[in-house]
Give the backbone structure.
Amino acid sequence: RTVYVNGDYLPETEAKVSIFDRAFLMADGVYEVTSVLGGKLIDFDGHIKRLERSLNELDMPKPEAFDDLLDIHRKLVEINEIDEGMIYLQVTRGAASDRDFVFPDPEEVKPTVVLFTQNKPGLADSPAAKTGIKVISIEDVRWGRRDIKTTQLLYPSMGKMMAKKAGCDDAWMVEDGFVTEGTSNNAYFIKGNKIVTRALSTDILHGITRAAVLRFAREAQMEVEERNFTIEEAQGADEAFITSASTFVMPVVEIDGKAIGEGVPGTRAARLREIYLDESRKAAI
Ligand code: PMP
């Protein structure tokens, strides 16, 4: 496949980044994942706005290519003939001349910008959406600025492995007794006509899919409560689900071995997935 690195479109085998890149040495990088449906970008503006926020929060300079990111995304979709899939975008503080905790002078060290596509035919018609997924709960031991989308993904990655080992698909993280979010998604339950999900703060990533889904839920006359909740409360719910750019709305049918509702995807989560996919396709660019 063809990838993008600092202004160049190259075969992936020829793309190179310095070993002194701060993301390689210190996870000093931020990223975004945008999904592609029908060759078009889903929620692109939201992802770019969040990227800008992540850069600001870390005093990371905006790359020169910032205003060209839409064109770069579109060009990669075209070159790699992506109909359904994802585009990964990473911006790092760049390659300093040596390993040093102090940030390099932004006049001298420019950000590294990397983009690549992931071809995922059948992404929207995912079999997992029909069966639902199983999650376990684990302690949330990540740092305190989870609202910044950094490349520090070791713990979420370990969480996924713990889930796999337990025969499950993902893990919901718990801090001080309350669910924060999934390893790479936001977490919800539904009781009656009410959707409950943790409120936005520095404790969780402000999901772009979350914002859209909560808006569609309110438009569909569902009640939305943004507050803390426990694993036990979610286990006693009628339905549960997660959201992310790559899974859209994905039903959760089991939490720590306890079936949610009938143990099959709920009708409300399925409906929200349908609305999200329909509306996102219409608004895709
Ligand atoms: N929380 C975490 C920790 C994530 O990694 C992600 C996906 N990157 C999300 C939530 C969902 O965010 P989005 O809907 O913007 O993909």
